[in-house]
Amino acid sequence: MAAFGRQNSTSRNSGARGRSWQRTTPDSTTLGIIGLICAVVGFFVLGIVLGPVAVICGWLAMGRTWKGPHPIPPLVAVVLGAIDTLLAIIWLASATGPTTGLF
């Protein structure tokens, strides 16, 4: 009665417990490329949104540290994302000047 519903429990989830590949390398490479794409597209469309996304993706792809050697796409994503965000903030600040509005 205690074994009810537990037949062949070892063969059911045999591949779910262990991983045979290293997960950090493909994930960080993918995040770096996504960050780089967001940074480049952010110069043309939605810079206020895509700039910070590029910075976050690049930072996570770099392993959240500045130490050690890093691949080029995450570093470029962080720098271009920061420039993109800064330009978007300047553009928004200049768009809300005293000359806009009804009066």
TrEMBL record:
<keyword id="KW-0812">Transmembrane</keyword>
<feature type="region of interest" description="Disordered">
    <location>
        <begin position="1"/>
        <end position="27"/>
    </location>
</feature>
<feature type="transmembrane region" description="Helical">
    <location>
        <begin position="33"/>
        <end position="60"/>
    </location>
</feature>
<feature type="transmembrane region" description="Helical">
    <location>
        <begin position="72"/>
        <end position="93"/>
    </location>
</feature>
<protein>
    <submittedName>
        <fullName>Small hydrophobic protein</fullName>
    </submittedName>
</protein>
<keyword id="KW-1133">Transmembrane helix</keyword>
<dbReference type="InterPro" id="IPR055338">
    <property type="entry name" value="YqfX-like"/>
</dbReference>
<keyword id="KW-0472">Membrane</keyword>
<feature type="compositionally biased region" description="Polar residues">
    <location>
        <begin position="1"/>
        <end position="14"/>
    </location>
</feature>
